[in-house]
Amino acid sequence: MLKDIFPQNAVDLGMLKKTGLKGLIYSYFRAKEKKLYRISDIIGCMSPANIDYVIEHNEDIPIGKLTECPNALEIVDKSVDVQTRIVIREKYDIPLDKKVFIYGGNLGKPQGIKHLVACIDSQKDNEDAFS
């Protein structure tokens, strides 16, 4: 499953360059990337745009190897009844009148962790927020 197109995402984030010393590191990982594409039977991409990107930058990959494989296909309602919600909030000392936000997935530079932390920090003095 291809999630982050590495090492290109590292170039986009300014962590690597395609020239100089960092270019050597980029070239090493790019060679590894190409080898992985070559030996893979199927490459699952997150979206049609990802498939297009991989094809555009890797013309030697047979199109038949690429398939769309998104994170989720449908939203599944996992709501709980009111009594269960109260029990869970009481267990974790979460006020009943506050919104709960849950993030699932990777947390790092590519996902904008600094921005997420800044958003959370901006609410620390907000009387309507709970932390």
> What structural class do helix, strand and pairing data support?
mainly alpha
- Secondary-structure element sequence? HHEHEHH
What is the residue-averaged pLDDT?
Answer: 87
Which stretches of 5+ consecutive residues score pLDDT under 50? Answer: none
Radius of gyration: 21 Å
Main beta sheet: 2 strands, parallel
The order of strands across the largest sheet is 1-2
- Tell me, what's the shape? elongated
Terminal Cα separation, in Å? Answer: 35 Å
Please characterize this protein's 3D structure.
This protein is mainly alpha-helical and 131 residues long. The protein folds into two domains: 8-68, no CATH class; 82-121, no CATH class. It is 41% helix and 5% strand. The protein contains five helices and two strands. It has a two-stranded parallel sheet. Strand 1, helix 3 and strand 2 form a beta-alpha-beta unit. It starts with 7 loop residues before the first helix and ends in a 10-residue tail after the last helix.
